[in-house]
Write a structure and sequence with these properties.
It contains seven helices and no strands. With 94 residues, the protein is an all-alpha fold.
């Protein structure tokens, strides 16, 4: 889940969140970082909602899987279906 969250943070251009999650992935003992940072919690909540939305939908599941190794590339930056899923998660988590 952290790898997906890192990809989502990268996709959303939230470099500070991406760095914090990378640190957490390298040192799982630092879980207090998650509790103290509302932006990280927001990214993780989005991943949980995305997972739920992806159940039974292979297209969404592939989008979620692509976040694991997401790198900033121009063609994926314009991925409207992933942006749509992020907007839907925003609506469901607020």
């Amino acid at each position: 889940m952290l790898e997906e969250a890192i990809g989502l943070a990268r996709f959303m251009h939230k470099d500070d969140v991406m760095d914090s999650l990378n640190d957490l992935l390298a040192d799982p003992i630092r879980l207090e970082v998650i509790r103290d940072d509302p932006v990280i919690m927001d990214v993780l909540n989005k991943i949980l909602v995305m997972r739920k939305l992806s159940e039974g939908d292979s297209r969404r599941k592939k989008k979620l899987e692509r976040l694991r190794g997401y790198q900033n590339s121009d063609d994926e930056d314009d991925d409207t279906s992933l942006r749509e899923m992020i907007r839907l998660c925003d609506a469901l988590t607020r």
